[in-house]
Amino acid sequence: MTMRLSLLLAATCAFLVKTSLAVFADEAWTKDYHYALLGEPSDAALFHQPNPSSRASLIYTVSEEGVLGAVNPRDGSLVWRQILHSGDPHGKTAGFLRAGEGQDVVVSGLGSQVAAWSAADGRQAWHVELGSPLADVEILDWVDAAGTPGPKDALAITTGNKAAVSRLDGATGSTKWQYELDTTDEPYQVSISATQVYAILLHKTMMGYIKLKVISLDPVSGHKTDEYILSSENELSTADTIISVGANSASPIIAWTDSAYSVLKINVIGTKTVSTFNIEKHDEHAVTSIKLHAPYHVNSLSHFLVQYNTDVSHRAEVFHVDPKKGKVEKAYSLPNVAGMGSFSTSTADANVYFTRITRDQVMTVSSVSHGVLGRWTVDSFNVAADKDERVEPVRSVSEVSIKGDSVSAVRSAVLLSTGDWILLRDGTPVWQRPEMLASALSAGFAAPMEAEMLVHELEEEAHSSPLQAYIHRITRHVQDLQRLPTILPTLPQRIVAGFLGTSADGVMANDGFGFHQVIACATKNGRLVALDAGNPSKIMWNHPVADLKTGQEWQPSISSPKGGVLELKSKAGAGVQYNATTGEQLVSILPIDVEADTAAKPVKYSVSGNGLEAQMDGNPAWSFMSAQGERIVSLVPRPVNDPVASIGKVLGDRRVLYKYLDPNLALVATVKDASKTATFYVINSVTGGVLHSSTHARVDLSASISAMVSENWFAYSFTAEASDEGPKGHQLVVGELFESLVPNDRGPLAATANYSSLETTTEPFTLTQSYQIPEPISKMAVTRTRQGITSRQLLAILPDSNAVVGLPYTVLDPRRPVNRDPTKDELAEGLVRYAPVIEFNPQWYLNHQREVTGIKEIVTSPALIESTSLIFAYGLDVFGTRVSPSFSFDVLGGDFNKFQMLGTVAALAVATFVVAPLVARKQVNTRWQFL
Ligand SMILES: *[C@@H]1O[C@H](CO)[C@@H](O)[C@H](O)[C@H]1NC(C)=O
Ligand SMILES: *[C@@H]1O[C@H](CO)[C@@H](O)[C@H](O)[C@H]1NC(C)=O
């Protein structure tokens, strides 16, 4: 009998033991998400085989964000990427990307730097700094007379004060020759024929027109062999109407048009004849832009395609060059099709193919004749977009497979008007990359309305008397009952989901944890894009919200005034509200006025030189003047929604240290270039009063300075230069403000029970502590929870290691005892002995092993459950996760096994059932024994 009992117990224990082994470790890769992005691909994108012996190719691009990368065309995964630094603060210079046929390297050019990279893994082979901005980079795509094997040489043309054409050795990047250009002409591009190198320059005439100057150079010696000016008869008034050309060709060409787009002029470089073609009008819509598509290989046929776009349609014409006569002839036209379209050029041996992508079709033709070699229907691009929006292809690159006389397959990587980069295989979308998120300028969270309503109800219960709360709760459950008919059919799935412990990852409508919040990002191209933080694998919606002209910038900011609503503000003022779930516009106070963004308008604060002015309701409230020679580098206010659970800190001996809580705290960082000092002021942003300040000497002002304020504490970091006292080091300073440093004493504030922040004159007592950290922090943020009970974590972006860390407050606490061990009371509070160096614990890395690159900002939002804060970081990559700084005290872990728990309960029930009669009999027996 006892054996049966112990067997049962053993079985029960076995059930229980297994569950307690892992503590949330399994959540590491499920609760966080990461998009490794490149940015919207520019015209510089191509298919290329990284390994000449294999036919598998990758897609290479230099994006608008200056990121060079390779993507696998099978699944859209990133193979490698490198961030190119343009040296241009506005990042407006376009990047160049070239790959020689059969080469295992790709060559990039951005800013003034040319570099070569291993096509397979992105390792840098060499890089050259040319000291002047690049106008063009090409590859000398033919084997020279000596037949030198190895990587082909590159040609670069630079503008500015070091204008020159340089031939760079393909293996080392060293300059083989350099031809200096006269700086009165503007270098435009470099072209290569089978025998010559041509520098094309823009020559300004006395009348202000542009003429094209061509200088031909010997490719071996770099000596000038000829120079002439093309007669362009006063039609070129700006360089904008020059149509870029395919530079590597048996007979390279240059084409231009007049500002009215009425004639197309084409010159075969090296000849002086200019062929003129009238641009016909097809309907009442005028041509608004012209694009030229030509092959990039010297041994390809000299055929090219000219694309004419109007506001409503597009068409194309294909031209052939007779290399012997230097003559250009029109071969055939491709019909006018409504909407935008994109063309791409592919080559196979000498043959040239053009692939056209329209809203609903992919079609490939040979450059020789207009016969269609392959045609596929596109049902949908399969991306999130506005419901009345027509998603259109913007630009594309294609790879065609030729079988006999027809195209058996075509793969095209297409940038869409939504900012998605997708791959179409024979017209069917295979993958999409949300590259528009790489240019997110602002992001914000919005809780779905359902969740917000629940919070409101719960708060009401918390604030009323127990009886009222009880009645309220009953009413709430009765109301829930009314939803029963809609819930009942979904019940089986819910029960199954409940068993499998997947309910936390369910849908937005019944998200009891508040993990399913909407994250909206306003992107550089004027769109608002939303993700579900609980299910981020898909874009929820994507809307055009600002009509930006080419090159126009805007400064959006996103907030959530109430549950289920997102508000987008442009710097101009009034906001526009959107339904967070659907993205529908709710009330438009004013359309988003991007024009006003360009003229800087004072928002709440305005920084001018060394002064800071605050305005409330448009009237100046106060101004803060820092000392002479100081300039303000950052101003961080306390977060608007920063709940504080307790006004005091409970010490180990149960006494209380009162926090200095002021909703208007702000931290201002100023630097003085002359003395290399940085000063940090904690101010009251309503009165402008300085509550605390500290100055640091020998600060490296070129390194980043970051700062953060929350509750009654602040943190900032900077890099100190090496000195006699210490080596170069990154510093993190943490300060905490108290009403008084005497426990149980409220200091001077005690007398004024209801003080107004405008009137207080009392100053807080500030404790600060500084720490050495292993690397610089570019930006800080703080976790937020619903009630503020959970301890906070300082979130820091580490640009040097492409990481985001969450530092627990106990590590930062300025009250850590210095030069002694903590007392028993301090230990009870969680204080540990001060150490001057904080090493980042591997467990603090929120990104785990992933590289989160280019992160510029972090936003946080409280979940519905108190323990958890949602985090979203953006910049180039997009990374999100949720953290529980005080552990998940209010939620069962993902490894909690309901089956085992129920199994255990069942086993215990059986045990009780079996054992109870035995126990009863035993009790009876014992009683009988006593009698
Ligand atoms: C947002 O749209 C959903 C679905 O149409 C609707 O149920 C919800 O009430 C809307 N929210 C607001 C704030 O209008
Ligand atoms: C607090 O404010 C109320 C209303 O303004 C005032 O009547 C009261 O006297 C104030 N209490 C103190 C201690 O100042």
Automatic annotation (TrEMBL):
GO cellular component, one term: EMC complex
Domain of life: Eukaryota
Sequence ranges assigned to domain EMC1 first beta-propeller in this UniProt record: 22-435
Transmembrane annotation, as ranges: 899-920
Sections of the chain in a coiled coil: none
Entry's family note: Belongs to the EMC1 family.
Name the record gives this protein: ER membrane protein complex subunit 1
